[in-house]
Amino acid sequence: MPKTVMIALFIACALVTGCVSSGTYEAKKLQAEGLEKSLSEQQNAYQKLSAENASLQDQLKKLKADLGSTVQERDLLVKDKQGLEESLKSTADAKNKKIGELSQRMGQLEAENARLKDEIAQVQKQKELEVQKTSKTYESLLDTMKSEISKGEVTISELKGKLTVNLIDAVLFDSGKAEVKPEGLVVLQKVIDILKNVKDKAIRIEGHTDNVPIVGALTRRYPTNWELSSARALNVARYLQQQGIDPTLLAAVAYGEYKPVAPNDSDEGRAKNRRIEIVLVAKD
């Protein structure tokens, strides 16, 4: 309300109620002005407080929204934390189980390796003993058959535990014959005396010939060199059995002309190919 209007209303009131003194009038006027000023100040304060209240309401609304978002984030984090804890526990349990299985398997493998090492050591020891026995047999044959070796009638070789006594056919057989002649039996007996002590080897009697075809009446008995080499090997094997060699250790094999040790283009080469080989090998 305008200031002049309020003063006029105040004066009018004073006139209605009666005449007042000038002093009283001034006092009332001052009082009205004071009230107007106070009202204006209160209105300004109200407006300021209203604006402040509106701002606080906005802040409160924003804070409530932020709080709701924070609570949601917290709930999600709690849920994620629980999920991670469960996942970690599950992973840890699985790894612990795997570690236990691997530890058990390692223990089994260590035991198996120890067993295999022990077995290898035993096999190696047995192999060394067999080589020693073969070497001893080899040395005994060399010593026993010095005369035949010096004459070139017999050769003896040892390679990787395989011992071979090679006897040319002229020592054991007459030409075209498969029966061991008396002089050949003497030579065989020297071999037999050594082989009687061999119990852990197979004894293979191998018959070999040259490549000269069998002709004439002899073919009725020995059509080819296969038959001749077979008959000679069997006769030698049979004589070894008769002299006490365990027949379960014996085998007779015929190679005929197909496993030569020298070319067949000379008398000397053919003579080397006509032979009986007594071979000591590991048992099957």
How does this structure look, described?
The protein is an alpha+beta fold. It has a domain at 145-282: OmpA-like domain (60s Ribosomal Protein L30, Chain: A, 2-Layer Sandwich), CATH 3.30.1330.60. Helix content is 65%, strand content 13%. The protein has 7 helices and 5 strands; from the N terminus they run αααββααβαβαβ. A 5-stranded mixed beta sheet has the order 1-2-5-3-4. A hairpin with a 2-residue loop joins β1 (154-159) and β2. It is rod-shaped, with a radius of gyration of 63 Å. The termini are far apart.
Question: Main attributes?
Answer:
60s Ribosomal Protein L30, Chain: A; alpha+beta; Bact_OuterMem_StrucFunc; 284 residues; OmpA-like; signal; coiled coil; five-stranded mixed beta sheet; membrane
Question: Which helices and strands occur, and which strands form pairs?
Answer:
Elements (H helix, E strand, L loop, with lengths): L2 H15 L4 H123 L1 H5 L3 E6 L2 E7 H4 L9 H14 L5 E8 L16 H18 L7 E7 L10 H7 L1 E8 L2
Parallel strand pairs: 3-4
Antiparallel strand pairs: 1-2, 2-5, 3-5
Helix pairs in contact: 1-2, 2-5
CATH second-level architecture of the domain at 145-282: 2-Layer Sandwich
Oligomer: single chain
Instruction: Give Rg in angstroms.
Output: 63 Å
What is the CATH domain class of the domain at 145-282? Alpha Beta
Form type: rod-shaped
Structural class computed from helices and strand pairing: alpha+beta
